[in-house]
Amino acid sequence: MAAFAKSDVRQSLEAIRAQALAELAESSGLDQIESVRVRVLGRSGELTELIRSMRELPEHERPAVGQLANQVKREIEARIESLQHELRLRKLNESLAQTPLDVTLPGVRFFHGHTHPLTQVTERLLDIWAAMGFEVVATPDIEDDFHNFGALNFAPDHPARDMQDTFFLDGGLLLRTHTSNGQIRVMEQRRPPLAVVCPGACYRRDELSVRYSPMFSQIEGFAVDDFGKITMAHLKGALTEFLRAFFGPESEVRFRASFFPFTEPSAEADVRCIFCAGAGCRVCKQSGWIEILGSGMIHPNVLRAVGYDPERYAGFAFGMGVERLALIKLGVDDMRLFFENDLRFLGQF
Amino acid sequence: MKLPLSWLREFVRIEADPATLGERLSMAGLEVEAVERLKPAFSGVVVAKVLRVERHPNADRLSVCEVDAGAAGRASVVCGAPNARPGMVSALAVVGARLAPERADGDGALRPPLEAAVIRGVRSEGMLCSERELGLFDNHRGIVVLPDDAPVGRSLADYLELDDYVLNIAVTPNRGDCLSVLGLAREVAALFGLKLGPAHSRPAAPRLGHAAADPALSIAIEVTAPDLCPRYAALPMARVEIDDSPLWLRQRLKPCGMRPVNNVVDVTNYVMLELGQPLHAFDLDRLRERRVIVRRAGDDRELETLDHVKRALLKDDLVIADGVGPVALAGLMGGLASEVDNSTTRILLESAFFAAAGVARTSRRLGLVTEASYRFERGADRQGQIAALYRAAQLIRKVAGRCELGAVIDVEPHPLPARQVEFSRERVAGLLGISMSAGEMARRLRLLEINVKPAGKGRLVATIPSFRADLGEAADIAEEVARVAGLADIPTLPCRPLKDIGGEDQRRALLSVIRATLTGCGLTETKTLAFAAPRDNQTFAGFKGTAPVQVANPLSAELSELRKSLLYGLIGTLRFNLHREAQACHLFELGKVFYREQGELKEGERLGALSYGELAFKGLGERGRIADPLTLKGVVESCLDALGLSARVEFARLPPSLAPHLHPGKAAEVRLDTGVSLGQLGELHPELALALELDYPVALCELDVGELIAYGSLRKPVAPPPRFPAIRRDLALVLNRDFPVAQVRKVIAQADASLLESVELFDVYEGGSLPAGKKSVAVTCRYRAKDRTLTDQEVNQLHAKVTAFAMERLGALPR
Ligand SMILES: [Zn+2]
């Protein structure tokens, strides 16, 4: 058999290439591409056979023809690969288009609970006082007459006790009517200087209603130091700083003379109504001001009751109702919401 | 205290508008809670004199009156009132006038304007009005009767000062002196720098009538309890004509909230409102033996008071007695038997100073608070008795006939000198944080009728007026100095920490971590009241103490004890929310419980948790896991992790007798390794759950917060992640069904194998090929060395050793 001519081989390669590329161009599926691949590049494919037969070419012609053959092979392979990729991608996109996500569906939530609004307000209040250097101390709810009244300068049978209708237990004990017992409990144990806040539950004989609850929470605070180091001016400073931290730096604060058995002089602190900016509304009873807390210089009789010499020491004290502050801060007007625990309410905090 | 502005102006010429006045009083400690505007319920009514009264020609019951209305001219009006008589002064509604609505409960609109009318053939140009028609009082028996000297032609509204403001003042308990028009006028004068008018502040002694020597007016007065009654003054009066009070007097009492009774009683009330001194009028002829003894009740047991209530007396109650027995409860209320009524002609006016404490004690015990007791408790003017008697006598003579006066009897065993308070300028300035001269202090105090004089050595002495029972020491003086100028005068100084900020607040930090963990696990915090019904405390008895704590004066039987446990409140919250759309509830509460321990009352902080229904991580249409004791245990374990306590806590089966409210088979005690009990966890007893009509079990847990805080810590050891990999080997053991699984881990962990890092449970299996009464427990043992990667061979040897140890110690069969 006569040897292949170099030119024949070239022609065959060109023909294989042209045909393969033409077929590939027309193929529309992976199957067709595969059959082209098998027919041309398979173990006994046209190109494979042709390359195998090139061994019979004269030695000197082989490199040039071989190079061409490889080029054709790579070209066809590359085309096949790119077509396959293209087709696969098209197919994937087609199938992905079949299973779209309705992005307006709700997310699957990691459910978390809520701390009680009163807890949140209490924590905020304590954070402010703590940042101002006041130490937080826990004190008992069950008290005796001395710590709740006597040491706080409530004379027996004095009408000031009527302001705080008391729940009595037995053995002369009662449920504290205010957290002011904290003053006595702490001062009995320690010596000045002191700066303390006592949060906690208090109890008074009021039915649960829009405005009152038989159990509520207060924060009592007080500071005692050598006479002259703590004055009414410092009380005003401390409370103004506190109120601005809680209600906002622009808050306007005023102090009104008042009466509490355990402070003298006594003062109530008001904040310019945050609902009407002072114009007068239902919340502030048209006064433009909201009563926030009671305060004053610790009464000399209170200092005496804990064995402090009022000539030597002076201090201020203040007390605030957490529910009241929460109602104002949250813009809610019903005390009962805090204690009925409707999850539709609590879930908002 | 209700203060009509018109009455205040009798004492002090205050020009400020009511809002400014209210604000200034509020700033000075007399909080004005409301300013009420009063307006007449009519218009076009004038004071008019009746000149002639003639029978109506065509009607028996009517008359035709000729009236003089001054500038408004004369008019002829038809009138049906039986009391119309020539010469009387009354109220004429002129044509165009509008009268009060017919019905007090209507919409409040005035009647249409009055027109001239022809009544039974006679023309009527106006109308003489009754008190009801003017909306003054519910009196329709006749036309209004005004004093003979009332200014004819003047607008009736002006004359009666019906266009007025009433300040509602919350007087604090220390300011008894401000429970009167005079007292408030003093404050207003001080605050506005005005002078108090002399009007009625010091009424002169009225001239005695002829009756001074009348034996019928003689009476013996004796005080045997001067500690409770330091002063008792009285004035007998004769020929008193008891009747209704004139309109002006009733009109004064009305805005102050007092109902008219009769002229004498109304005068006593008037003087009390005006001067602050409570008075009482006895029917003199009903005082037996013509004696008055101010004494302790002693053996007298009962007194029927004016309000027809029989009051039980204690031996120390102060009473006013006559020769036979008690006739009044001193400072509180008069007795019924000596009451002034229409038949009374002689009276004894009492004006006494009763000590606050005694009145308060009796008032509180009887639950009886009167205008008088309210004032005595808060401190009446120690020297105000005689002036009040004089003032009352003057008024009674004006409104109850030309009565005759006896001699004032004044019993004061130990007259009290004016109180003096010594203080220093430095003390007052140092308390307030101001610099102020002694002169300025004295000036301010003088406004309040407090006189200051030097007392030598730089000290000052203040003489306190008798009406200020509340001023006793330098701090009180400081308050007055500050108050009278307003607290805005005091500077505002920064108040910086007084001491070093101590260590972090461990307690708050731990509580905050507990809350954060629980909310992170999906639990919402609740707050319930600490009161409980006895049966709730029996069912949910908590885990400490024996008996509950009772409230001596509860709001109701349902709230008569303090809670021993938080669980009942949580179940109440569950019930509440299930009735309000909730499908699931995962709740916790941090609060106090109360109990008795060896007779003593104790309180403890608890963490209560309740988990019911689906746990919420789920998509649409999917079912969430239903909460049960193990899911709640998981929540508790998360908390223990956060507090660094996990490794030290174990859950042990709880005998049903210790937690009868829990499912007997699903109850655990949460215990520290030292044996300290931290609380309980389990499922609500199905019997108790029945009443709640639930779909799922209720998981409950209650822990002792005190112990959690005592043992918990936020400072946990921190280690870098291991550098070499761990190698795991599983181990399955067949054990008796009731063998506690936690024991398996615990025992295996004791194996003598230092490279055994951890033992984790991964499966518990029963049934199938296992023998009855057995279960298979599978654990993963994790082996790791710190300094190298372990070889399989090494680990196999170790694991074989551990397996053998486990089998032997647990008495387990291999799987
Ligand atoms: Zn407002």
Mean pLDDT metric of chain B: 91
Rg for CA atoms of chain A = 45 Å
Task: Give the uncertain stretches of chain A in residue-range form.
Answer: none
Q: Output the strand order for the largest sheet of chain B.
A: 26-30-31-35-34-33-32
Element-by-element helix/strand order of chain A: HHHHHEEHEHEEHEEEHEHHH
Oligomeric composition of the shown chains: heterodimer
Largest interface: A-B, 94 and 98 residues
CATH class of the largest domain in chain A: Alpha Beta
Strand order of the largest sheet of chain A: 1-4-5-9-8-7-6
- Based on DSSP secondary structure assignment, what is the total number of beta strands of chain B? 39
Spatial gap, N to C terminus of chain A? 96 Å
Amino-to-carboxy terminus distance of chain B:
88 Å
Features:
heterodimer; A: 349 residues; alpha+beta; BirA Bifunctional Protein, domain 2; 2 domains; 7-stranded mixed beta sheet; two-stranded antiparallel ribbon; 12 helices; 9 strands; 42% helix; rod-shaped; B: 815 residues; Phenylalanyl-tRNA Synthetase, Chain B, domain 1; OB fold (Dihydrolipoamide Acetyltransferase, E2P); Phenylalanyl-tRNA Synthetase, Chain B, domain 3; 5-stranded antiparallel beta sheet; 20 helices; 39 strands; 25% helix; 28% strand; elongated; binds zinc ion
